[in-house]
């Protein structure tokens, strides 16, 4: 899985400096800065540009998945940056011996893989399939850790129980050292009282315990003189009584060293069968470190995974130059994105416009993003962007300036055009800055047309910058070539660094001369030397570009107003919806109130009817009970009718105060019927209701008048 890929899988580029001219080397350095391990740093500094889609997609998926982990703050167990190539190589050599510290490093590597395998549970393997692909062809071997733990302590020292012989040697050493310590302490105490011992009292020389005596007393103690201090004031003497014990301890220490070496040699031989597996472990941890670095770089530049397509195709939406984006980010300046589309229909883009307007930066943006995507790096573009895969990259940019200082140049030659025309094909991406310059304008322009025509025939995709008018005209009438202009503010004489596709741009030669205050006579003289048609066309381009900018500005204002209108419309709809909802609530409340009144009425009727039935059973006067029932039922039936009559009366008449006399209009108190008084007979009155005269009590009548027309209900 991690073998070196053949050269035919890598992109071909011309010239040798093409990658550095597009500043791909700086992307490699930024990537390497995020790497922890030597493996990952070396891979970043030698980042490969692939041409096989499956490889590119796999690496892009890995970068995108690890970026998601970082954004979500998830922990991934690959923090240690171990460089164990030497240890693993030694492990595979017969007779080699690794130290305890080296085995601890190998254990740490194996434990790192254990954690990685444990992290990739069933759910995470489904959620992050590209990351899980890295460990697909390997496995975790727990015997590596268990074998090391049987032999070594956490500090790398060999355990006493590693072998019976070592255990016995160390026990003997422990006893002999204790015996030596007690004997030495007695001698030291005796000599200290005699005043022979220096301030240091004791020391170790050549692995043996010795006394530190004043130099003038060194012959007062029997033993072996091991040396003196630099000042010659202190002598180091091994007492005669401890020589035998020191010899025994020295011998046991050598035996311990031999036994430890034997144990480590056996452990090395035991684990040598896992040398290849450990090598794959080392590569895996390096791969995850490398993928993590790509994800961190993506976070720095706001990189995303665009759509990847087969064939020659570039569709960049809101694309940023990553280095320029980082530089402006530090200085808190905005970066202008670019939009470019190259496909079968429009294969070559001819960009024109004033100097320092961003033509070269636009070219470098496209080239660098294409290199990054084919290297498995996420790029700063809109998610709807899409790119194809190219097998050749050819570039001729006449400057080596750094984009970090926003420098651009427009001078180069045509020395490499022969190679371009001979080697380009349908899977070639090329960039030519100032095509045709460096020669006589007429001859250079003619030659530039020939070059463009040949590149169109070869179906290559690319971008060309120029000031030549004939190339702008050619792009306008030749299938496969399209014009593009870098926007320029003629009033402020400032470039806008924005590409306007579909139209050629003016160089603003005379406008810039006028704005900077060049003498009018000189400008007039220069104009007289220019072909009139050429001058008129450049002026037309100038005016067209400014008109287009005005239209774009008005379009932005219109879009803003439309968005505001949509917002107000949404708010109005929301208000209407809220009012309608409130009306529905009020209607429901009223319906609930009426239902409650009806329920109460029915319960009351049920109670009264039960009472009447009870009275019917108990009462002897059945007729009286029947009257009660009739009164109850008929009164309830008349009530709605009475209410209707009252409403009808109130609509036409009004009650007034006064004495009722003959000819007055009156209404009956009980049923609101209206009539006219024909005659008064004491407390009685004859009232004409319709065609029938009725005699009623005056007290049962109410004097009324017709309502004025204004007071009648509509």
Top keywords for this entry?
flat, six-stranded antiparallel sheet, 51% helix, seven-stranded mixed sheet, 714 residues, alpha/beta
Describe this structure in words.
The protein is built from 21 helices and 21 strands. By secondary structure, it is α/β, with parallel strands linked by helices. Strands 1-11-12-13-9-14-15 form a 7-stranded mixed β-sheet, with helices on both faces. It has a 6-stranded antiparallel β-sheet with strand order 16-21-17-18-19-20. A 4-stranded antiparallel β-sheet has the order 2-3-5-4. Helix 3 (38-45) packs across helix 12 (275-301), helix 5 packs antiparallel against helix 12 (275-301) and helix 6 crosses helix 12. The longest helix has 87 residues, at 532-618.
Summarize the structure in short.
The chain has 714 residues and is an alpha/beta fold. 51% of the residues lie in helices and 16% in strands.
**Number of strand segments:** 21
Question: Mind summarizing the main beta sheet?
Answer: 7 strands, mixed
How many alpha or pi helices?
Answer: 21
Q: What is the helix fraction of residues, given as a range?
A: 40-55%
Average of the residue pLDDT scores: 82
Unreliably modeled segments: 400-412
- What percent of residues are in strands? 15-25%
Shape: flat
First-to-last CA distance: 91 Å
Q: Structural class given helices, strands, pairing?
A: alpha/beta
Within the largest sheet, what's the order of strands? 1-11-12-13-9-14-15
Q: Report Rg.
A: 51 Å
What's the topology here?
Elements: E1 12-14, H1 18-21, H2 24-33, H3 38-45, H4 53-72, H5 85-91, H6 100-119, H7 122-127, H8 129-132, H9 143-151, H10 164-194, E2 197-205, E3 208-214, E4 223-228, E5 234-239, H11 243-271, H12 275-301, E6 307-308, E7 314-319, H13 322-330, E8 338-342, E9 348-352, H14 359-374, E10 386-387, E11 392-396, H15 417-423, E12 428-432, H16 441-457, E13 461-465, H17 469-477, E14 481-489, E15 494-501, H18 509-515, H19 520-528, H20 532-618, H21 622-652, E16 653-655, E17 665-668, E18 674-681, E19 684-689, E20 692-697, E21 701-706
Parallel strand pairs: 1-11, 6-10, 9-13, 9-14, 11-12, 12-13
Antiparallel strand pairs: 2-3, 3-5, 4-5, 7-8, 7-10, 14-15, 16-21, 17-18, 17-21, 18-19, 19-20
């Amino acid at each position: 899985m991690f073998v070196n890929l053949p050269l035919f899988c890598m992109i071909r580029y011309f010239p040798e400096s093409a990658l550095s001219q597009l500043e791909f080397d700086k992307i490699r350095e930024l990537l390497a800065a995020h790497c922890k391990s030597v493996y990952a740093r070396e891979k970043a500094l030698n980042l490969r540009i692939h041409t096989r889609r499956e490889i590119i997609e796999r690496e892009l998926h890995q970068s995108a998945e690890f970026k998601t982990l970082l954004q979500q703050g998830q922990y991934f167990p690959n923090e240690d940056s171990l460089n164990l190539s030497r240890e693993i190589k030694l492990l595979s050599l017969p007779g080699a011996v690794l130290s305890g510290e080296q085995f601890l490093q190998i254990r740490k590597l194996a434990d790192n893989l254990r954690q990685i395998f444990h992290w990739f549970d069933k759910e995470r393997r489904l959620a992050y399939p590209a990351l899980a692909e890295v460990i697909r062809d390997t496995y975790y071997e727990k015997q590596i850790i268990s074998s090391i733990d049987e032999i070594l302590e956490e500090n790398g020292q060999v355990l006493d129980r590693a072998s019976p012989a070592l255990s016995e040697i160390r026990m003997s050493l422990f006893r002999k050292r204790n015996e030596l310590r007690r004997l030495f302490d007695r001698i030291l105490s005796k000599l200290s009282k005699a005043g022979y011992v220096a301030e240091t009292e004791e020391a170790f020389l050549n692995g043996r315990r010795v006394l530190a005596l004043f130099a003038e007393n060194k012959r007062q103690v029997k033993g072996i003189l091991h040396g003196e201090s630099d000042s010659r004031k202190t002598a180091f003497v091994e007492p005669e009584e401890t020589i035998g014990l020191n010899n025994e301890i020295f011998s046991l220490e050598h035996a311990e060293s031999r036994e430890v070496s034997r144990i480590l040699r056996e452990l090395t031989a035991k684990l040598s069968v896992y040398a290849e597996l450990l090598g794959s472990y080392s590569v895996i941890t390096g791969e995850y470190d490398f993928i993590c670095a790509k994800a961190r770089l993506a976070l720095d530049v706001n990189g995303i995974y665009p759509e990847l397509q087969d064939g020659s195709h570039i569709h960049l939406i809101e694309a940023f130059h990553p280095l320029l984006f980082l530089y402006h980010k530090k200085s808190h300046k905005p970066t202008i994105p670019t939009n470019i589309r190259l496909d079968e229909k429009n294969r070559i883009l001819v960009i024109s416009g004033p100097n320092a307007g961003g033509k070269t930066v636009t070219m470098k943006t496209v080239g660098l993003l294409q290199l990054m995507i084919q290297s498995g790096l996420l790029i700063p573009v809109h998610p709807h962007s899409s790119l194809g895969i190219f097998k050749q990259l050819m570039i001729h940019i006449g400057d080596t300036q750094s984009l970090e200082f926003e420098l651009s140049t427009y001078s180069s030659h045509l020395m490499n055009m022969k190679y371009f025309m001979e080697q380009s094909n349908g899977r070639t991406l090329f960039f030519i800055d100032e095509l045709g310059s460096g020669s006589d304008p007429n001859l250079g322009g003619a030659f530039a047309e020939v070059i463009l025509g040949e590149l169109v025939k070869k179906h290559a995709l690319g971008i060309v910058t120029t000031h030549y008018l004939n190339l702008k005209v050619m792009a306008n009438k030749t299938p496969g070539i399209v014009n593009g202009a870098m926007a320029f503010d003629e009033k402020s004489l400032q470039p806008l660094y924005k590409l306007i596709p579909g139209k050629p741009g003016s160089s603003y030669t005379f406008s810039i001369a006028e704005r900077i205050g060049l003498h009018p006579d000189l400008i007039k003289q220069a104009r007289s030397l220019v072909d009139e048609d050429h001058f008129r066309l450049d002026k037309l381009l100038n005016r067209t570009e400014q008109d287009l900018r005005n239209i774009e500005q008005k379009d932005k204002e219109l879009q803003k107003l439309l968005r505001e209108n949509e917002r107000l419309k949404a708010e109005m709809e929301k208000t209407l919806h809220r009012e309608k909802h409130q009306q529905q609530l009020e209607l429901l409340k009223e319906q609930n109130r009426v239902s409650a009144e009806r329920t109460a009425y029915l319960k009351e009727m049920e109670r009264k009817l039960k009472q009447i039935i009870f009275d019917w059973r108990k009462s002897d006067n059945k007729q009286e009970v029947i009257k009660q029932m009739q009164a109850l039922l008929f009164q309830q039936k008349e009530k709605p009718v009475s209410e209707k009559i009252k409403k009808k009366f109130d609509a036409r008449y009004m009650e007034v105060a006064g004495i009722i006399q003959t000819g007055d209009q009156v209404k009956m108190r009980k049923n609101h019927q209206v009539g006219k008084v024909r005659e008064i007979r004491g407390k009685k009155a004859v009232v004409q209701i319709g065609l029938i005269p009725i005699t009623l009590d005056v007290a049962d009548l109410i004097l009324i008048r017709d309502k004025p027309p204004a007071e009648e209900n509509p």
